[in-house]
Design goal:
Blueprint: E1 32-36, H1 54-59, H2 61-67, E2 71-74, H3 102-114, E3 118-123, H4 133-140, H5 146-149, E4 153-154, E5 177-179, E6 185-187, H6 202-217, E7 222-225, H7 264-276, E8 283-286, H8 295-298, E9 306-307, H9 310-314, H10 319-334, E10 341-343, H11 352-355, H12 376-392, E11 396-400, H13 421-425, H14 472-477, H15 482-495, H16 497-500, E12 505-506, E13 513-518, E14 522-527, E15 533-534, E16 543-544, E17 553-554, E18 558-562
Parallel strand pairs: 1-2, 1-11, 2-3, 3-7, 7-8, 8-9, 10-11
Antiparallel strand pairs: 4-6, 5-6, 12-13, 13-14, 14-18, 15-17, 16-18
Helix pairs in contact: 6-7, 12-15
Length: 573
């Protein structure tokens, strides 16, 4: 049953200022894409389970259209035991029954398209669920059988084979190998419930090409590729000599045995050919953690379209470091004609409001930087400045759900509520990623804050009581809210020709600040210096991330966009 909110629900309000981008084959080069973590977006089927679903997403599509994004990216919605939040897929051609049905997915795609929203899905090609029919067949089959060749099975080391085949460490803690009853071991770079596929196997390659076509034929506009840098392994499976998991190849590991291997590119060329075979070409975005200078190899014209910019996401909010990342990104990707992308958060990292409220604003440790005090007022001010900076840069941008509401990381979830596999696999030393996955608050003063249409439903993760101040409804009523900032910035991206192209020029500015020009002279000034600075010229700002002083100064931790006729001079007092 699909019960959309009533027509007067302000969180679904669509007014005449909604502007849809014109259709074109290169939409992805400048697209603003909204990440939907479906389990936590909106619960709309009325079953009282407190879990987001397709019905909930359909009921909020107009909210997303009004926000001003060009596309939505939906985290895995396939059948899954949910050992890793859906990234352990048991069937790539269906919908998890908790989320809905394949027919509902078809309707969602059609309704999104009617609103001018493209739809991007997650594809998880590195591994499957241990409940996937292929892996169950492999467990029942003999060593060296065709069923086992779809995966990476090996004999153990030691006289009795009781030691793992090598010394690799898994992303969620512990070894990357699990032993089967017949004595062999299977590889899993993540959890034991996520056995890695063997991408040297022709059947694996053919299966995923078929999966891509299945969803493309249903109207899906593209895929985000999970762990795009980890699908291909060195057949020799050599020891790494490391004491813990590393998300990228380290110094002296140019030929890393399971990250960023050259064999990946043949796979992606075949995928690109499939995407380009459609009258309205489909697109790919890579989740790829690669060595410096290697990202252009993934984005050549016959491979993938774009990739997440993890360097920008993890960068400290410091002017010199941001400029370095921005320069490197634009320069590197220009070599292959690929657009940059910019992102502040996702379902794996601490929310910006929390992260930027700390003394150290970058991301340095796997999964989560924890245990550091946060100044939420400071973090919010900085998150607003970072958001406007991101949306003023050339290329594409990704917005993680709730980012536009100013939500903070929920770091005090009860231990009994934690579901991220990192918590168990780390021996209860790393709380994991649940804090950024708490269900969204939409309306009202008490949980579940309109997340479920059933008011008695208990969300799958508990929401803080003070999120009543962060609901979409509360944001809508406040002209200075985070939501209004995002809407205004996204509207400018669509309507101002200076922001629609890819022109970008740095201008001189003092230490601790950034100043650049877009198009025919639109200026973006960012003050991270710690002290107020004079605004350039005397023109009226187009948009600012915070209040500007009446004496013409740009406060610290503030970004402003200025019209083209502004004189570009920034000086510290």
């Amino acid at each position: 049953m699909n019960n959309p909110p009533p027509a007067n629900d302000v969180t679904n309000d669509v007014t005449n200022d909604v502007t849809h981008a014109p259709a074109n084959d290169s939409w992805w080069r400048t697209a603003a894409i909204y990440q939907v973590y479906l389990r936590s977006f909106a619960d709309g089927d009325g079953d009282g389970d407190g879990t987001g679903d397709i019905a909930g997403l359909r009921s909020r599509l107009q909210y997303l259209a009004h926000l001003g994004v060009d596309a939505i990216w939906i985290n895995p919605w396939y059948p899954s035991p949910l050992a890793d939040g859906g990234y352990d897929v048991s069937d790539f051609r269906d919908i998890h029954p908790t989320y809905g049905t394949l027919d509902e997915a078809r309707k969602l795609i059609a309704e999104a398209h009617e609103l001018g929203l493209r739809v991007i899905l997650d594809i998880v090609p590195n591994h499957v669920s241990d409940q996937h029919v292929w892996f169950q067949e492999a467990l029942a089959a003999a060593p060296a059988s065709p069923a086992r060749e779809r995966f990476i099975f090996r004999e153990g080391r030691g006289e009795d084979g009781s030691e793992p085949p090598n010394d690799w460490h898994a992303a969620f803690g512990g070894p990357t190998w699990t032993r089967t009853p017949d004595g062999q071991w299977y590889l899993h770079l993540f959890a034991p419930e996520q056995p890695d596929l063997n991408w040297d196997n022709a059947e694996v390659r053919a299966e995923f090409e078929s999966i891509l076509r299945f969803w493309f034929d249903l109207g899906v506009d593209g895929f985000r590729i999970d762990v795009a840098h980890g699908m291909v392994k060195d057949p020799a499976l050599p020891d790494l000599g490391l004491t813990e998991f590393s998300v990228v190849a380290g110094e002296g590991q140019e030929n890393h045995p399971h990250w960023d291997r050259d064999g990946l590119h043949d796979i992606f060329r075949s995928w690109r050919a499939i995407a380009d075979s459609y009258p309205d070409p489909r697109v790919f975005v890579a989740e790829a953690h690669v060595r410096p200078g290697r990202m252009p190899d993934y984005l050549r014209p016959d491979e993938l379209h774009t990739a997440f910019n993890f360097d920008f996401l993890k960068c400290a909010l410091e002017a010199d470091k941001l400029r370095e990342v921005i320069d490197r990104t634009i320069t590197d990707l220009a070599k292959v004609g690929a657009p940059a992308t910019w992102v502040l958060s996702n379902h794996d990292e601490a929310r910006p409001v929390t992260r930027y409220g700390r003394a150290h604003t970058g991301i340095t440790t796997p999964m989560r930087d924890q245990g550091h005090p946060t100044d939420l007022a400071l973090g919010t001010r900085r998150a607003r400045a970072a958001a406007l900076l991101m949306l003023a840069l050339p290329g594409g941008a990704y917005i993680y759900q709730g980012e536009e509401l100013g939500l903070y990381e929920v770091e005090d979830l009860p231990e009994s509520a934690l579901q991220d596999p990192t918590w168990e696999r780390s021996g209860h030393t790393i709380r994991g990623r649940d804090g950024c996955r708490v269900p969204l608050p939409w309306t009202g003063d008490t949980p579940p804050f309109g997340f479920s249409i059933s008011v008695s439903a208990k969300p799958w993760l508990p929401q803080p009581d003070d999120w009543k101040f962060y609901t979409a409804e509360a944001n809508q009523a406040d002209r200075t809210s985070m939501l209004q900032l995002y809407r205004s910035a996204l509207r400018l991206r669509r309507t101002d020709p200076n922001l629609r192209g890819e022109e970008f020029r740095w201008l001189d500015s003092p230490a601790g600040t950034l100043l650049f020009e877009r198009g025919n002279g639109l200026l973006c000034a960012v003050n991270l210096s710690g002290q107020p600075i004079p605004l350039p010229g005397a023109g009226s700002p187009l948009l600012a991330s915070g209040l500007l002083s009446r004496d013409g100064l740009l406060p610290p931790d503030t970004t402003v966009l200025l019209p083209p006729d502004t004189t570009a001079l920034l000086q510290l007092d």
